[in-house]
Amino acid sequence: MKFQVERDVFAEAVAWAARTLPQRPPVPVLAGLLLEAGSTGGALALSSFDYEVSANAEIDVTVAEPGRALVSGRLLAEISRSLPAQPVDVTVDGARVVLSCGSARFTLPTLPVDDYPTLPDMPSTAGTIGADVFATAVSQVAVAAGRDDTLPVLTGVRIEIEDDRVTLAATDRYRLAVRELRWQPERAGMSAVALVPARTLADTAKALTGGAQVSVALSTGDDAGAGQGLIGFAGKGAAGQHGERRTTTRLLDGEYVKYRSLLPDNCAAYAQVETASFVEAVKRVALVAPRNTPVRLTFTADQVLLEAGTGEDAQASESLDSLFESNDAPVEDFSIAFNPAYLLDGLQAVDAETTRLEFTTPTKPAILRGGKESESAAHEQDLRNDYRYLLMPVRLSG
Fold first, then answer.
1. For the chain, is the Cβ count within 10 Å smaller at the N or the C terminus?
2. pTM
3. How many helices (H) and strands (E) does the chain have?
4. How far apart are the C-alpha atoms of 96 and 261, rounded to whole Å?
């Protein structure tokens, strides 16, 4: 194998393919990055696979000799991003890969390429979705996914497809995030459900923002071929990367929480607060809130008081302007408390200038959503910003 490639193009592709390499591979070859230079079209494919997640990047190169080689992915990524801004020549010399760029020269040992597993085929394309919209939606929802690997079903994001609507949902039992958006399915009336590992989905969505669209490939009940139990994504990489990027991941098994029953049909009161000010105030007040200590919110007609700390401990308080309305007349003060980290996750995921908080009672979950956008969605049936973050309150003593 022998080829020449532009330094930036090569470094970006290596970094993208190497990002999914396992930290502690069960067998040494899974730490490798597979380089395949084809004789047709002068293309180079860079691939990684750990039996769960695969990543593939294709770039244009000048191929002198086709071939394939397997080298340490992390080492190649470190080397490629440190090279001078000159063309890169890569050659296989026996059991080593020689990489030259300007006056820099590296010799890397190869791994046994015949022992490398075959990458899974992409399932059939199910539809496309806007890259930026997809990345935003996934980031909003994945924040609520569980991180306890002993409950793997809660570490995923549930994707529900019904014709031209997609619903993303995630929960760790303490909060629930739901986002609805539109997409372009390959066929009308499509219906499918997939439970995707949240970390992989979030990383992939963030990495595929270089193009206008992301293709979603998913095996459905109508598919009899390859791709069962997989979901795939394809698009342009971020940061102006050249060529297409593709990734697949195995789906999680298990029965997911019936989360729709957790969302209240109506609220007894609601508040509206400027999002950026609210985020900064929670961060400041939470400085005196040790681990698992809540931040208390007390709403009056035109203000919200944030408090943390009690007794002999450090204490903090801050007031913000807000709008509070209740079904009760006259309006009574309303107090509720939340885990500050969970509250901040929800506020920072709200992609709106104002945040609307919907309440039933101080001991039942509250809903956070974008203030202006949610009203637009209700009146215009616009699902582009239909985001809901349900948060369990912390019970206050007394």
1. C
2. 0.88
3. 7, 26
4. 58
